C-alpha cells in the first residue's frame, strides 16, 4: 500500500493492514527528516500561517496577503474526497505546506481511517505517536546553536481496545484531544491547554496528560504546537518600561499594567506601579515600544521576580528596563515573546539570573538554545521561513555562579535556615540534583568542545563542591544583591 | 617559625578548565581536570616538560586522580561514574589496564584511593558506601563493602601500611575501618560540616581531615583521639597532602590559598596564593635533592611548582 517513509507521519493506521503498515509505523526517521527538509524548502514561497504566533509582524503585509491567497488556492488544501485511497492522499499532501488546512486534513485522515477500520470490522484501532521521553536523539546544531531532534524519537502505537484498560484510556484521550484541536482549527480559534483539560477533566485526570499529548501530536505531525491552534495558558510575568499598542487602538503599559484607550494620558503614579503583567502574545499588527529600555533581565523564579519588583532598587531602575520571569522552565509563549523583543531591539542586552543548580542551568539552556523536551519545536521553528527560531543566542548569564560562593557561605539545613536565619542560600545537592547534573554533562551543549564551556565547568564545580545556591547568596556581596545587580547591569 | 617556598615553574593553561586533581610518582606529576585529558609532567627536568597526554580518558571530565605510593599504578574517576586504572610501561608511557564500574545503580563512584603497592582501590558512593576493589585480579572485582550511615562519601584514603581505610562524609562524619577484620574501627567525632579531604600520615599513625569547618583535625589512628586542630584557613579546605617524611602537611582551600603546616610545631609555616579561584589540588613531589617540592593547581587551569628555599 505504501512503499517508503512518506507515510510515516501519517498518524493513524488500522492494525489489520498488517505487514507493510507495520513497517511504516517504525519507518526510519531519516525519511521523516527528508520529508521535513523538502517541505521546508518548497514552502518558502508559500508558507504563511495566519495563526502562527511567531509570525514576523514586520513581514510585508501585502506579500503576506498574497501568500495567504496562494495557500488557500492550493488545490491540495481542499478537503479530501472520500473516494480516494489513503496512499494517494498522502502523496498529494507530502509536498504541500503544513498550515492550518494541512493540519485539519491530517486530523481528518486519522478519523477517516478510524471509521474505515470500524467499517472493515477490524479488531483493533491504532494510532501511532512519536514520543519525546528522555533526551536521547537531541543534539545541538553547530550552525545555529539550537537543540534539535536528531532522529532518535521513538514511535509507539496506541491501540483500542488495547491490552489494558490504561491503553484504551490513552486512545480515548488522544481521540478527544484531536477532536478538540480539530474544532479549534476549523473555527479558527486559539484554545489553551487549560481549555482542553476543562472540556473533559474526568477523562484527562490531570493537566499534565493534556500537555504531554498535545506536544506529542505536534511532534508527530512535525509542526509547531501553535499550528494546532493550541497555546499554553500564559505563564510568564513581566514588568518594565515597555508598551504594546494594538491595531484597534488599545495599549498595554508595562509600568502601570493598565490597558489604556488612545490619547488617554499615561499617569505613572507610584500607587499604580505594576506588580507584573502576563507575557502577552504579540499579534502581527502590534507595535512594541521599548525605546527607553536599556536592559532586559530574565529571572528564573517568580519569588525572585516579586522580591525585586517590591525592592527599592526596582523603584530606582524600573524606568530603564524590563524584568521578566517564566516561573521556571520557560514556555513557548515567553520564549517567542523574548525572541520577538530581541529581534525588534537587538541592541538591548539580555541578562539571565538563575539559581546555581542543575535546573538553573537547564533553564538557562532552554532560553538560550531551546528546549530538550520540546526539541521538535526548536527545529521546527528554525525550518520555517516565516517563523523565527526560538533560541536567544545573546542571553548573558550573570549569576548565580560558583564564584559567588564565598568562604562565608554557610551550608544551611532547612531547619537551621528557619531557626537562625543564617540561610546564606547554600544547600547541598540532592541525589536527583547529582543525577541531573551528570545527565546534563552528556548534553551536546555541555560537550568538551561544545558551545558552553563555562556551563560545563560550573556543573562540574557544583558536583565537586556538592552545593547549590539560590539568589539569597548574593546578599553576601558587599552592598547586597541590589548593588550586585546594578553592577552587573552597568548602572554603578 | 616560617619557611620560604619559591615558585620554581608554572605550567600555564596546563588544562583548559579547572584542574581537580594532581597525583605524583617518583619521576612525574599527573594532572586531571574537567577536560577529558590527563596530562603527565616530568618532574626530574628543571622545566617540568609535558611528556604525555592521555586523550579521552573520561569524556565528561575527571574529578579524582590518584597514584600508588610506588608510582606504578594510577587510577582516575570520571564524571560519567567509572574508574580507569593506568600503568606505566617500560618505555615510560601510561596506558589503560582496567575499567571499574559499580554495578549498583545509585553507585556513581566518587572519591578514590590506591593502596601503597597499587593492588587495591577504595572508592566512595553518593549514598555513603565505601567499596574496595582488587586490582590484582584481571576482572578487578569488588572484594569489600563498608556500610556507613548513608551520607555522601566525599573523600577516602588507604593507609600506607595497608591496615586502614578512612572515609570523610558530607555530614561531617569520619570513619576508620580495619582492613584486616573488615570492621569499623572508629567513628571520629569533632567535625560537623562536610569533610572534603582526609589523608593518613606516611607512617599510618595520624589521620588528617578537613573541610567546611576550615579547621584541619589530626586524629591518632590507633586510639581515635583527636590530637590537634590546625586552624588558619579562611575558606573551605579542599585538599590535604603529607610530605614523604611526615614532617609537613600541605593544604589547599576554596579561597585559593595553600598552607604548609609543621607537624612538629603544629603551626602554619607558609601561605601561598594561587590565582583567585578554588585551589582543588595540592601535592608534594617525591624529595629528590635536599629541598622539598610541591605543586598547586585549581580553577585557573595552571600547575605551579614550588621549591623550599635553601637554608629556610
How would you describe the overall organization of this protein?
The complex is a heterodimer of chains A (492) and B (312). With 492 residues, chain A is an alpha+beta fold. Chain A folds into two domains: 4-231, no CATH class; 285-488, Dna Topoisomerase Vi A Subunit, Chain: A, domain 2. Chain A is 40% helix and 14% strand. Chain A is built from 18 helices and 19 strands. Chain A has helices at residues 20-25, 29-42, 61-73, 86-93, 100-119, 165-186, 193-199, 201-204, 207-221, 302-309, 312-317, 332-344, 358-369, 375-383, 414-420, 431-441, 453-465, 480-488; strands at 12-14, 125-131, 138-141, 146-149, 154-160, 191-192, 230-231, 237-240, 243-245, 251-253, 258-260, 277-278, 287-289, 295-299, 321-325, 350-353, 396-399, 426-428, 467-469. A six-stranded mixed β-sheet of chain A has the order 12-8-15-14-16-17. In chain A, strand 3 (138-141) and strand 4 form a beta hairpin. In chain A, helix 5 crosses helix 6 (165-186) and helix 16 packs antiparallel against helix 17. The termini of chain A are far apart. Chain B is mainly β and 312 residues long. Chain B has one domain (5-308): Methylamine Dehydrogenase, Chain H, CATH 2.130.10.10. Helix content of chain B is 0%, strand content 53%. Chain B has no helices and 28 strands. In chain B, the strands form seven sheets. A four-stranded antiparallel β-sheet of chain B has the order 1-28-27-26, with no helix packed on it. Chain B has a four-stranded antiparallel β-sheet with strand order 2-3-4-5, with no helix packed on it. The interface between A and B is medium-sized, with 21 and 34 residues.
**Total number of strands of chain A:** 19
Decide which structural class fits the backbone of chain B. mainly beta
CATH class of chain B: Mainly Beta
Fourth-tier CATH superfamily name of chain B:
YVTN repeat-like/Quinoprotein amine dehydrogenase
What is the domain total for the residues of chain A? 2
Taking all Cα atoms into account, the compactness measure Rg of chain A is 25 Å
* Overall helicity of chain A: 40-55%
Strand content of chain B: over 45%
* Quaternary state of the chains: heterodimer
Radius of gyration of chain B: 18 Å
Overall body shape of chain B = globular
Order of helices and strands of chain B: EEEEEEEEEEEEEEEEEEEEEEEEEEEE
What integer is the average pLDDT of chain B? Answer: 94
Sheet having the most strands of chain B? 4 strands, antiparallel
Relative helix content of chain B: under 10%
| Separate helix tally of chain B | 0
Record the strand order, biggest sheet of chain A: 12-8-15-14-16-17
Largest pleated sheet of chain A: 6 strands, mixed
Question: Architecture of chain B in CATH?
Answer: 7 Propeller
